[in-house]
TrEMBL record:
Residues 10-517 form the D-Lysine 5,6-aminomutase alpha subunit domain. Pfam families: Lys-AminoMut_A. This is D-lysine 5,6-aminomutase subunit alpha. InterPro entries: Cbl-dep_enz_cat, Lys-AminoMut_A, Lys-AminoMut_asu_sf. It comes from the Bacteria.
């Protein structure tokens, strides 16, 4: 894309690109119009958290859950937590935190307080919200200052993960990885935390396949990464997961603790965690408003489709989903520069010319989304105990990454099919990637593709297939399409899955001041 003119090494017809984007836009608008009528318990808990409600009861129940459950049990949640908290502030003079503590102690019932004039309540709710937004603004400025001071590493950013289960051990491994050359550190979340309908509290030292995502854990890792960033003299980005049943809450915590990247994709939760599609699409909309405003890059989960569906046969589903995710993100206010749209190097290594097909797929994503810091995922489905072949597979993945100018390169580890990678395995992965990125830095600028050759034909075919799928999806709508199993060979029911009981239709007086303050739609 140059000066608004579409330029394609793949021979892609710009009219087809616009057609695909318009179809995706129609699908996304239909979704947003639907979900805008609803809120969820997790959206309301997010408002509580932004209002400064924190800590847990003696029984370990988070106070945001206490407040929202209190309103839900009394049939009062339809007008939203902000209305009742603001009214209580006006009536009692207490802070939102004090109000939550009184509710937990059984000394206050929000529904029994006389209601002030609704205009006064909304004004108070808005003023309370401005305090939280000011903190987010401060964190954005802090990120900007640090990048100016330390410098921003070149893309593709080298992205590696830590997953010990113990946040303090994660810090040790994260700092070691940064010294080895990593630019982004992702703290893998404890297995199945996405299915918890609450956010754990405090620093945690035990997890399963990862470490719990908590505000204190975010804070500990942020401090550690800032410390090592000053040592290596480059800004280091922190990643965690804004997904699952607490998607918007974790987005808020990420915004308050200056995370830089968050995995954020409702479709992943629907397909791979069987979270109810209405619940998670409502949650995603608000979470993306927060992340867009906070300057946090989202990572989407299209790469996961290819772990259950064949990457050659169904590569077009990745493109279709990327286009829909782009439009949903724009509607929520996320600029293209914050869209880490996902895809992966997942074709069967025995496929003849598989590298060419991978190159075509990655180049197609780059041309369709020229401003996006695309998140490119390594081979996983066909990794084996043969670490020597695994290292070659990862190297070929890195070649495609630098060739097609990916933004975020999540490095593969040669031992990942055997065990959780050691520090030495991570060193090999980083060292190999740096070697390839340096030696092939400008290959994408130098090499053109044969007109009508394998790469061009493959990319054009994938785009045509994606358009055909988007045509059907626009006819059916996203929810019915998911019921039909259009992505990842997985079918889900609109009224099925986990979390539907936490969805409610907005009442007459419903108000979410953070949407008013943070939402800046891009289309």
């Amino acid at each position: 894309m140059a000066d608004g003119v579409f330029e394609s090494k793949l021979g892609i017809d710009p009219k087809k690109v616009e057609r695909a984007r318009q179809l995706a836009r129609d699908i996304a608008i239909d979704v947003v119009n639907f979900v805008s009528k609803y809120s969820t318990v997790s959206v309301e808990r997010t408002i509580c958290r932004f209002y400064g409600i924190d800590n847990v009861t003696e029984d370990g129940i988070p106070l945001p859950n206490v407040v929202v459950d209190h309103l839900k049990e009394r049939g009062a949640l339809t007008d939203g937590a902000a209305v009742y908290i603001a009214n209580a502030v006006l009536q009692t003079g207490m802070t939102p935190q004090e109000i939550a503590e009184q509710i937990a102690a059984g000394k206050l019932d929000l529904t029994k307080l006389p209601m002030k004039d609704m205009e006064e309540i909304r004004a108070t709710a808005l003023e309370l919200a401005k305090k939280a937004v000011a903190i987010v603004d401060e964190k954005k400025e802090e990120r900007k200052r640090m990048i100016e001071e330390l410098g921003d590493p070149p893309q593709p950013y080298i992205y590696v993960i830590v997953a010990t289960g113990n946040i303090y051990e994660d810090v040790v491994q994260a700092q070691a990885a940064v010294r080895q050359g990593a630019d982004i550190i992702a703290v893998i979340r404890s297995t199945a935390q996405s299915l918890l309908d609450y956010v754990p509290y405090g620093a945690t030292t035990e997890g399963f396949g990862g470490t719990y995502a908590t505000q204190e854990n975010f804070r500990i890792m942020r401090r550690a990464l800032d410390e090592v960033a000053r040592e290596v003299k480059r800004y280091i980005r922190q990643t965690n997961y804004s997904s699952g049943l607490c998607m918007p809450e974790i987005a808020a915590l990420g915004a308050l603790e200056r995370l830089d990247v968050m995995l954020n994709d409702a479709l992943y939760g629907i397909l791979f965690r069987d979270i109810n599609m209405i619940r998670t699409m409502v949650d995603q909309y608000f979470s993306r408003i927060i992340l867009g405003y906070a300057g946090i890059i989202i990572n989407t989960g299209e790469d996961n489709y290819l772990t259950t569906a064949d990457a050659y046969e169904q590569g077009y589903t990745v493109i279709s989903s990327q286009l829909i995710n782009e439009q949903l993100a724009l509607l929520a206010g996320i600029p293209e520069e914050q869209m880490g749209l996902g895809h992966a190097f997942e074709m069967d290594p025995s496929l003849e010319n598989g590298f060419l097909y991978e190159l075509a797929q990655a180049q197609l994503s780059r041309e369709l989304f020229p401003k996006a810091p695309l998140k490119y995922m390594p081979p996983t489905r066909f990794m084996t105990g043969n670490i020597f072949r695994g290292l070659v597979q990862d190297a070929m993945f890195n070649v495609v990454g630098i060739w097609t100018k990916q933004g975020i390169q999540l490095l593969g580890m040669m031992t990942e099919a055997i065990h959780t990678p050691f520090l030495s395995d991570r060193f090999v992965a980083i060292d190999t990637a740096k070697y390839i990125f340096n030696n092939m830095k400008n290959i994408g600028d130098e090499v053109i593709f044969k007109p009508g050759g394998i790469i061009q034909r493959r990319a054009q075919e994938v785009l045509d297939q994606a358009i055909a799928l988007l045509e059907r999806m626009r006819e059916d709508g996203l929810f019915k399409s998911l019921e039909k199993g259009v992505f990842a060979n997985t079918k889900r029911q609109m009224k099925g899955g986990k979390g539907l009981e936490g969805v409610f239709e907005k009442g007459k007086y419903y108000y979410n001041p953070f949407i008013e303050l943070m939402h800046k739609p891009r289309i």
